[in-house]
Amino acid sequence: MAGIFRNFFKIIDHQTVIIAALTVGGTYLCLRFGITADMPTGIIGIAIIFPIVFSINAAYRRREDALKSFASLKAHAASLYFAHRDWAPKDVSGRDKLGLKELPTTLLHRVRDYLSAVEDNVDKLKDVYEVFSRYSKENEIMRDLGVPANEISRVNQYVRAMIIDFERMRNIHLYRTPMSLRAYSCIFLNIFPILFAPYFAFLIQDTMPVVGYALAVLYSVILVSLDNIQQVLEDPFDAGGEHVDDLNLDVADRYVGLL
């Protein structure tokens, strides 16, 4: 239960407090100057909630795609290590001592460093592709050692699959859900206190003051929290596990004992 509340409060930030305060302040001013109106609350769902929920759904799919690609990348890296270790002739099976065992962990470290960067870092991207290049060279060494051509084709397909998985994660890192929809939601979210202050003032007159102010705060917290959830899901690599829904990219050391 403590973990649930801790995760909940991670989506409550300064914007939540500001929007709630503006809504309460606007409600008070409308009440004081007699500006009240029984407004249709359905407009909140059309103008704010629906676009935010649509963005959350799109961001969630991006996160799930990133999870699948990262799992596939790790699986192919392990498969390549086992192929390099076991398919070569027995008299040269000690090749893994020359650095083959380090390739999977080196790849995971460099993928983490690249995806954790705020911007597209060309040097870190080159570091990732340098590992892919080393894999390709190791495949050619296996060919020279007499490994059949069909098996060499298979391990080259493993390298291709890893590159595809990495590029999928890279696109998720670089590109976002539609910015026009994001801008639309942000604008309506921030003018919400002004638009609906007369409605909350109307509730205060029609019921009790505590009801109107409580609903003003509740609406603000719900709307801003939904917006914050969308932002957290937008880039699943952005905080290295700081947010509960971020992918944990720092897994290389766990694989050392498995290989």
Q: Can you give a write-up of this model?
A:
The protein has 259 residues and is an all-alpha fold. The chain has a domain at 67-176 and 241-259. 75% of the residues lie in helices and 0% in strands. The protein has helices spanning 2-9, 14-32, 42-86, 102-116, 122-144, 149-174, 179-206, 209-234, 252-256. Helix 3 (42-86) runs parallel beside helix 8 and helix 4 (102-116) packs antiparallel against helix 5 (122-144).
Q: Compute the number of strand runs.
A: 0
**Broad structural category:** mainly alpha
Classify the helix fraction into a percent range: over 70%
**Helix and strand pattern:** HHHHHHHHH
Report on the biggest sheet: none
| Average pLDDT reading | 86
Spans of at least 5 consecutive residues whose pLDDT stays below 50 are none
Could you provide a short overview of the structure?
The protein has 259 residues and is mainly alpha-helical. It has helices at 2-9, 14-32, 42-86, 102-116, 122-144, 149-174, 179-206, 209-234, 252-256.
List the helices and strands and how they pair.
Elements (H helix, E strand, L loop, with lengths): L1 H8 L4 H19 L9 H45 L15 H15 L5 H23 L4 H26 L4 H28 L2 H26 L17 H5 L3
Helix pairs in contact: 2-7, 2-8, 3-4, 3-6, 3-7, 3-8, 4-5, 5-6, 7-8
